[in-house]
Specification:
Largest sheet: 9 strands, mixed
Structural class: alpha/beta
Enzyme class: oxidoreductase
Strand order of the largest sheet: 14-13-12-11-7-10-9-8-15
Bound molecules: 6-O-phosphono-beta-D-glucopyranose
Shape: globular
Pathway: Carbohydrate degradation; pentose phosphate pathway; D-ribulose 5-phosphate from D-glucose 6-phosphate (oxidative stage): step 1/3
Number of helices: 14
Number of domains: 2
CATH class of the largest domain: Alpha Beta
Distance between the termini: 39 Å
EC number: 1.1.1.49
CATH topology of the largest domain: Dihydrodipicolinate Reductase, domain 2
Catalytic activity: D-glucose 6-phosphate + NADP(+) = 6-phospho-D-glucono-1,5-lactone + NADPH + H(+)
CATH architecture of the largest domain: 2-Layer Sandwich
CATH superfamily of the largest domain: Dihydrodipicolinate Reductase, domain 2
Radius of gyration: 25 Å
Helix content: 25-40%
Strand content: 15-25%
Protein name: Glucose-6-phosphate 1-dehydrogenase
């Protein structure tokens, strides 16, 4: 199945679907997995006979579990209660066989009950065609023991079994290979769904459509027309509360090696032969293979300190972070793709925690025009905003309206909120869960793709750690460390020329921005 098949109706291809959420008492399950399941339930997109199980170590009364599992769901009490009717909580260990055997018995009993009712309704066709989804919302330390135990005691060879694994998948190329080989001795690649939630985001899914369903973008999508590409992730909050996890991983493993490199691979890949998952993933992997490992010389690292007003704590003020930690909370790299399409184009990737704004954005800057008619002006730039809003705009030179013959820079602007119903945009996790139910791997990371992503970053990560490279300080709430503002210029990015920039707000009409567009 491919990612662009209709998702407005569930494919009722299984007689019963059992979804088991491991780590059901944890943050990820409460914040993402259960709300995503609820979103599908609300939209009538869960298959007809779906049974949901929460599994975790904590011993909890049902009402405590219900309260936690629904704490991030926004809907009427009635609807939430209706959803929770099909959710059962089971407490058990992550390493004792007996607990997994007990889980298997509960799942078997649930499926049996559904089948008995199907026989009663004489739905013979749908008999015994079961899907089991094992969703591991778990810390990586228990991935292997849980997946082994599932395989040994819960896996059903007569059913379709899907194992959903959350990041982080390993710590570097070697550990990721070890993890993969441990998991793949029990599970086939077709059964594994490695999640990168950025692949479920609306605007990330839109990149392929934009590129391959529109004549004009693909026509200029290369080094003859594009000067540089910038993929930027900025978050206005720090890591307080999750410093224990973050300090071991750092921003490169947390955001860069997965989310941003995935976005890059879709932007840069060659057109796939079809929209089938393997064709798409082949193309993504191929482009990653053309990237040499990133060097320290092509990198800027930072770590946030207290905010200037002293109100926000610095990274090292977190008691769960070691006092002499060199873990970067800011990283900017220049990535070069050595193939015919992209040779010579710098791809500038930036990920930053505790900076001035919340924004994830792609900027594709075109080359200067060589025109004998008009002077060299500002460049065209295609901007795809992934969050906090969904928008696409193309900075375009136009004639200023009126009798003047001045030129100005404005936007061809598609703001999703102005054009589409906001409620149509699903949460990334809901979209990915629907893919797991529909056995669509296009938006999941294949083993060889993951290996390539680690290959690109592992030498740099090792060097940072072995040579104890100190990141540059930057104040909480600032734009980043010294050198941030000219990093992309240094590496071949765009230095804007002076030009008025007219920006059309969808609500208020034209607004003249005070000066040239900021990068
Ligand atoms: C997660 C990272 O994978 O992605 C977090 O671990 C980060 O550090 C988050 O904040 C960002 O996701 P989103 O969907 O809020 O952009």
């Amino acid at each position: 199945m491919s990612t662009f098949e209709s998702r407005t109706q569930v494919k009722e291809s299984h007689s019963v679907t059992s979804i088991i959420v491991f780590g059901a008492s944890g943050d990820l399950a409460h914040k993402k997995t259960f709300p995503a399941l609820f979103e599908l339930f609300k939209a009538n997109l869960l298959p007809k006979n779906t049974l949901i199980y929460g599994y975790a170590r904590s011993v909890m009364e049902r009402d405590v579990f219900v309260k936690k599992a629904t704490s991030y769901i926004k809907a009427t009490e009635e609807l939430v209660a209706k959803f929770m009717e099909s959710v059962v909580y089971i407490s058990g260990s992550y390493d004792k066989e007996a607990d997994f055997v007990r889980l298997r018995e509960i799942i078997d009993a649930g499926e049996k009950k559904v089948h008995l009712s199907l026989v009663k309704t004489d739905d013979a066709e749908q008999k015994e065609n079961r899907l089991r989804i094992y969703y591991m919302a778990l810390p990586p330390s228990v991935f292997v023991s849980v997946s082994e135990n599932i395989k040994k005691s819960v896996y059903d060879a007569n059913a379709e079994n899907h194992l959903v694994v959350e990041k982080p998948f390993g710590f570097d190329q070697e550990s990721s290979r070890v993890l993969n080989s441990q998991i793949s001795k029990d599970w086939s690649e077709a059964e594994i769904f490695r999640t990168d939630h950025y692949l479920g985001k609306e605007m990330v899914k839109n990149i392929m459509v934009l590129r391959f369903a529109n004549m004009f973008y693909e026509a200029v999508w290369d080094n003859k027309h594009i000067s540089n590409v910038q993929i930027t992730f900025r978050e206005p909050f720090g890591t307080y509360g999750r410093g224990g996890y973050f300090d071991q991983f750092g921003i490169i493993r947390d955001v860069m090696q997965n989310h941003l490199i995935q976005v890059l691979s879709i932007l840069a890949m060659e057109p796939p032969a079809s929209l089938n998952a393997e064709d798409v993933r082949d193309r993504k992997t191929e482009v990653l293979k053309s990237i040499s490992p990133i060097t320290l010389e092509d990198t800027l690292l930072g770590q946030y300190t207290k905010s200037e007003d002293g109100k926000e704590l610095g990274y090292l003020d977190d008691p769960t972070v070691s006092k002499d930690s060199n873990t970067p909370t800011f990283a900017e790299h220049v990535v070069r793709i050595d193939n015919d399409r992209w040779r010579g184009v710098p791809w500038i990737l930036k990920a930053a925690k505790a900076v001035d704004v919340a924004k994830v954005v792609i900027r594709i800057q075109f080359k200067d025009i060589e025109s004998s008619v008009f002077p060299k002006l500002a460049r065209n730039e295609l901007v795809i905003e992934i969050s906090p809003t969904n928008k696409i705009y193309l900075k375009t030179i136009v004639k200023e309206p009126g009798l003047s013959s001045r030129l100005t820079l404005s936007d061809l602007n598609l703001s999703y909120s102005a054009v589409f119903d906001k409620t149509l945009i699903p949460d990334a996790y809901a979209s990915l869960l629907l893919d797991v139910i529909g056995t669509d791997h296009s938006n999941f990371v294949r083993a060889d793709e993951l290996d390539e992503a680690w290959r690109i970053f592992t030498p740099l990560l090792k060097r940072i750690e072995n040579e104890k490279i100190k990141p540059l300080p930057y104040a909480y709430g600032s734009r980043g460390p010294e050198g941030e503002s000219d990093f992309h210029i240094r590496f071949g990015g765009y230095k804007p020329t002076k030009l008025d920039y007219k920006w059309f707000s969808t609500t208020t009409g034209p607004v003249t921005k005070p000066s040239v567009p900021k990068l």
